[in-house]
């Protein structure tokens, strides 16, 4: 009779064990991908987080970041030649260390607003200078 009890309890015990294991799996913490995780690093590289210019590029004295820019912009910006562009509103200067400096009026709010009407963003600025440089 004892043997018969064990056989009857086995299916119920297996079901309980399965239910407990399912509950443990449901309670397990969701894997969070942190900064050091290879998948997160791969995503950052794909989004251009670690992109850099071949030479330093400065915009009105501040170092320009290549992060988030188009690949053409990252390639072209260090290759800009010295001169005045966009009707004399933008000056490109190269220094002895190979850096490229973009200078334009931006000290007043009106200057910044006028410049914003001229170019949309940094990508547009480099594209327009590049196109004008190719014609000249």
Q: Give the number of DSSP strands.
A: 5
Protein structure class: alpha+beta
Give the overall silhouette: elongated
Mean pLDDT: 87
Tell me what portion of residues adopts beta-strand conformation. Answer: 5-15%
The protein's oligomeric status is single chain
Q: Give the N-terminus to C-terminus distance in angstroms.
A: 103 Å
Order of helices and strands: HHEEHEEEHH
Strand order of the largest sheet: 2-1-5-4-3
Relative helix content: 40-55%
Q: Could you name the ranges where pLDDT drops below 50 across 5 or more consecutive residues?
A: none
- Major sheet: 5 strands, mixed
Radius of gyration: 31 Å
**Number of discrete helical segments:** 5
Task: Give a short synopsis of this structure.
The chain contains five helices and five strands. The protein is an alpha+beta fold and 136 residues long.
Describe this structure in words.
The protein has a 5-stranded mixed sheet, with helices on one face. Helices cover 48% and strands 12% of the residues. The mean pLDDT is 87. The protein is α+β, with helices and mostly antiparallel strands.
Descriptors for this entry?
136 residues; 5-stranded mixed beta sheet; single chain; alpha+beta; elongated
């Amino acid at each position: 009779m004892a043997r018969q009890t064990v056989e009857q309890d086995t299916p119920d015990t297996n079901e309980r064990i399965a239910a407990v294991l399912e509950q443990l799996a449901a309670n397990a913490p969701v894997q969070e991908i942190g900064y050091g995780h290879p998948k997160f690093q791969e995503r950052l590289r794909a989004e251009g987080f670690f992109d850099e210019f071949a030479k330093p590029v400065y915009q009105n004295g501040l170092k320009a970041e290549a992060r988030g820019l188009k690949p053409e912009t990252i390639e072209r910006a260090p290759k800009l030649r010295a001169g005045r562009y966009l009707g004399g509103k933008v000056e490109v200067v190269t220094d002895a260390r190979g850096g490229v400096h973009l200078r334009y009026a931006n000290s007043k709010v009106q200057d910044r607003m006028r410049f914003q009407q001229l170019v949309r963003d940094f990508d547009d600025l480099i594209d327009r200078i590049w196109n004008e440089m190719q014609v000249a």
